[in-house]
Amino acid sequence: MIKENELSSKIIGAAIEIHRILGPGLLESTYEECLCRELNLNGLSFERQKSLPIKYKGIYLDCGYRLDLVVENCVIVELKSVETCSQFIKLSF
Asked: What is the domain partition of the chain in residue ranges?
């Protein structure tokens, strides 16, 4: 199995490649589709839109939480799309 640091480097590299080619401002679903293609090209396994139930009083409830991607059953990737990086920085504070 690939180590976490190497795995995260591959994921970040794939995201940078997509951003380099497509730039900002597209729909999140577009970036997700492209990232899945890049992960395939890098030989990485992943699950898309994986359900994340919550445990409440001993039972698991599906409350609609979805993980965008789970790569190699190890790293959770949550995609966000904004028009510019400065917009994201403003929104994150």
From this structure: 4-92
